[in-house]
Each structure stands twice: as structure tokens, then as C-alpha cells.
Amino acid sequence: MNFELTISPGELDLDRCLFSGQVFRWRKRPDGSYEGIDGRNLYTIRRTNGIVQIDTTASRAAIDDFFNLGVDIVNIADKILTVSPELESHIGALRGLRIMRPSDPTEVFFSFLCTANNHLKRITPMIAKLAGYGERIEGSELHFFPRVSTVAAIRETELRAFGFGYRGATIPYAAVEAAKRGGDDWLTSLQAVGYEEAHRELVSIKGIGHKLADCICLYGLHYEEAVPIDTHLWQAACRVFFPQHAGLALTEKRYREVGDFFRDRFGRFAGWAHLYLYYENMLRGRSVRDVVRRDGL
């Protein structure tokens, strides 16, 4: 199906949304178009000024949900700046950045397990390799993401041979543990239990710490009060809100302190405030070209 959306880059910046570490199975073609997969849906997207043309297997409702088009990001920015005007430069530099809402919790779960102690240039091919265990898409060399039971059956030695390192052990282990709880259905069910319970369930699996659990909660389960705290967010939070912690290690106590601070100050927009701070810090000293991934799905 083909859709045309009349939406400005200030409302939807495709580079910032697709290549900011929220989703991973996208690439930008030499002609400037975007190609990617979300769950069972394939996308080819082109932008011409204020028009976004989308060729996809998804419905219009699925498109709106994936790009979170049902929210007014100008209003969200205003709400954040009302309580933290010091973030004006961060938000002003990242117009069009939205929290994405991937449709498949299983894919998000395993994708973020690939991100642990990793960087984007390695994460993308790693996730592409893991996706290769899934069902091949008819007429394409691409694959739908494998289900929990499939990942649970992958041998550690195989993943280590593909360059997964210690994740070659943690990913199948997490899959086995998820399978014991109900597999793909269990992951989907976490969308209905509330943020705190979902977070507790995820960290009960060995190898999933608070940061990975919060990433899964935010992007896979759509709890926008989740605040994943990695190196970039920790640096930004110390610079803007916690100068007394600058140069100190991110302990579990400080992790909770920062997360609770964001939730107390920004309420249901905590995840949005996190995203602006995280991505602005990630771009410091780096060109956009270093962040945009141009190969692999």
C-alpha cells in the first residue's frame, strides 16, 4: 500500500527517529530513501519537503503507531520546558525527534540484548545476523525476526562465531528464561502490567540489568515513564541536573535516583526528556554521519 503524509521535518525527522538507537533494522539508501522492517511490516519511505511517501505492507494505523504520530511533540516539548527551561537548547536542536513505538516486543527484547556494552556500528550487523534465524520474507533476502523458541535453540558457539562475544551466551539464556514464562505471549503481556511490574519481571532474568530493562520497557512495551540510563544519559544528567555526581560511577542507587527524578519532574513525559538528553549528548563531538547507519537490516 502507498500512503502520503503531509508532515514537516520539524514534526517528523526520519534520520533522528530511525537512527537514534531506538530501532535497528533500517538503512538509508544512496537516493535518500529509507528501507526498513517493523515486526511483520516492510517499509520504503521517501521525503519530499513536507510530504512523506510510504510504500509498505502496514496499515495507516500501524504507521501512525510506529512513528507515534498520535502525539503532539510541540505540546510535549512545551510541557518539558515548563518544568525544565534549561533543556531548551537540547529540544531546539532535535526538532522532529519522536519516541518510536515498535510493534514487536520480542524483536525489541532481543535487539536491546545486543546493545549491552556495544555501539551502533556493531549493533546493526549483530541484529541483522540474529534476524537471519527468522522466517525468510517471500521475494526478499530479508527475514522476519525469530520467535523466542527459535532464539532459545541457538547454540552459544554459533553466536560467538558471528562476533557476539559474551552475548552469545546471554541471548539464548534470556530466550530460555522468557520461554519458561510463556515466550512471545509473555513479553506481549508485559505491556499490560504497568511499568514497575514489567521492569521487575525483566530484571529477574540474569543478564538483564536496569538499563536494558528500561530500554525494553520504553521501546518494546511503550511505558514512556521508563528512563534508560546509559553513559550518554548519565553524562547529560550530571551536566544539567546532578553536577554533584559529575565524574562519579553510575551505581544502582544513583540509577534509581536519576530515574525517579525524571519521573517526578516530567511525569509521563520522562521518557521523552530522557531521549532529548541522551541523543543530544550522543551527538556531541560527532557528526550525524557517524550515527546514521547506511548498511544492514
Q: Care to describe what's here?
A:
49% of the residues lie in helices and 9% in strands. The chain is built from 16 helices and five strands. With 297 residues, the protein is of the alpha+beta class. It has a five-stranded antiparallel β-sheet with strand order 1-5-4-3-2, with no helix packed on it. The longest helix has 15 residues, at 167-181. It has helices spanning 14-18, 60-66, 73-83, 88-92, 105-113, 120-131, 148-152, 156-161, 167-181, 183-189, 195-203, 210-220, 231-240, 252-266, 270-283, 288-291, and strands at residues 2-6, 26-28, 34-38, 41-48, 51-56.
What distinguishing features does this structure have?
alpha+beta, 5-stranded antiparallel β-sheet, 16 helices, 49% helix
Number of helices: 16
Widest sheet, order of strands? 1-5-4-3-2
The best one-word shape is: globular
Low-confidence stretches: 287-297
Strand fraction band? Answer: 5-15%
Mean pLDDT metric: 93
Distance between the termini: 21 Å
What is the count of β-strands? 5
Can you give the helix content as a percent range? 40-55%
Major sheet summary line:
5 strands, antiparallel
Strand/helix succession = EHEEEEHHHHHHHHHHHHHHH
Spatial extent as radius of gyration: 19 Å
Class derived from helix and strand content? alpha+beta
